[in-house]
Amino acid sequence: MEAASVPEAQIAPQAPRKTGGATDRAKSERRLAYMLCAPAVIAMLLVTGYPIGYAFYLSLQKFDLRFPDEKEFVGFQNYVDVLTSSTWWSDVGTTLIITVASVAIELVLGMAIALVMHRAIFGRGAVRASVLIPYGIVTVVAAFAWRYAFDPTSGFVQQLPLISDTWAPFNERGSSLLVIILTEVWKTTPFMALLLLAGLALVPGELHEAAKVDGANAVQRFYRITLPLMRPAILVALLFRTLDAFRVFDTVFIQTAGANGTETVSILGYNVLINRVNLGLGSAVSILIFIAVILIAAFFVKVLGTSTAQQRGEA
Amino acid sequence: MVDSARERVLWGIGILVVLFYALIPVLWIASLSIKPVDKLTDRKFFSGEISFDNYDSIFGDDTFTAALVNSIGIALIATLISIALAAMAAYALSRLDFAGKAVILSGALAVAMFPPISIVGSLFDMWRSIGLYDTWAGLIIPYMTFTLPLAIYTLSAFFREIPWELEQAAQVDGATPFQAFRKVIVPLAAPGVFTASILVFIFAWNDFIFANTLTSTDNARTVPAALAFFTGGSQFEQPIGAISAAAVVVTVPIIVMVLIFQRRIVAGLTAGAVKG
Q1: Closest residue to A289, CB basis, from B118, B240, B254
Q2: What percent helix, strand, coil does chain B show, rounded to 5?
């Protein structure tokens, strides 16, 4: 009877679970789980919940560090000031242009790279390693690399055919945004491609074979089979990237610092909080950005929810 | 899969295009960093002349060497703390049965989406009053906002793949619980923990917004923030050579890690997003 001496707790996981889950074992398992999760959960709450709560408190104050004695409660006045300023709305516009343009380009380009990686019989490792480089590189470094490439004093871009020798992209809004978007696309398309590649792997090969037999060409198969089946993977990738792009800060800070109409909402928040040390007004900007991120996330989660529900219904 | 010669050529071209796309800016900044000072504005992709003066100048500059030490120390400590906390949580999430799993996972996801600019102002104010401004801890703490969720997601995905029954099998075979853990579970879990650590390190290494706003001197300023404050002769004269050389120095370790661990990094990156 050797086995009987093994403490029950160590063989119990194989035993069928009682419904209702009120056994001692289930209770102690739950207690252990909470103890193990508590440090990480408390840490996450402390590092996000507390500062955001404090930011909300600050956003209701008139609080300029240059005149700290004038601190007073002003209710939602800072929000009124931000929401009635043209700067806020033009910065929202700029942020949306960068977000929509870069995410759209990334989706198309990411899909192309994912297809190359999916189909590549040779060189798959080389492709995977090389797309991870833009992803792993420090954003500030990528921003400098592209800035120096396009800057007319140091850059090689103006030496390329069809490009004017005197082109100075950072002197003007449209071309500045173009370089910013290019940098964002270059840096983050690999992440999009890897998420889409994981989605592609879930599309069963037999469906393609069957469609081929029925006479569907490659383009038809892509639009009728691959894309619909990848819808959830595409939406997840879009959610991640849209939220990330909306927060864009590093690239803009390094390349233009917000000059020539390239100021994004994060740059605005930085300027008011850190350069003008107006913590009251700046915190209102911070909270508004936070709300915008929640709205974007809620939109995607809703679309994602309906799409997976639809797919389950059809299956 | 039977591919015709023509298709093989087409996919081959596709691979070359992807390689070209990924490597151009990296080669460009590397080329800038080895241009002699008088060739920095020659506007050629490669100068043809090689000089390591830019590297000599940054390693002779306390601002850069201090920033490099700060970057390495802060990213390593942030990685160690978040991996330790996340490993406990991920073990519970992937192996134990309890209510609230979904809440914790979606909560971690929500924290990962958190815009850093939303807390920069309040941290700036709090850190100045409690003395954490411009310190290592002052950066490590906010780094938890993105390192913890990332670590929890990747570790739970990896832990779900571990055949935990082997632990009981070892105990049935006479191993003590500690032996079973050390000789069976640790070797199985180590690769996942290692991969998650690399990912977390890369994210901490990359941070600019916290480092830029919550530091002011060599005391805690990391390389990305220091790069933005390198000064040339005048406001309009950029220290292109020094910035490029420093950029290469912080990029090389990332490229080395990515090349060695590419397969596992891809698994870690996508596991959380697809299965979670």
Answers
A1: B118
A2: 75, 0, 25
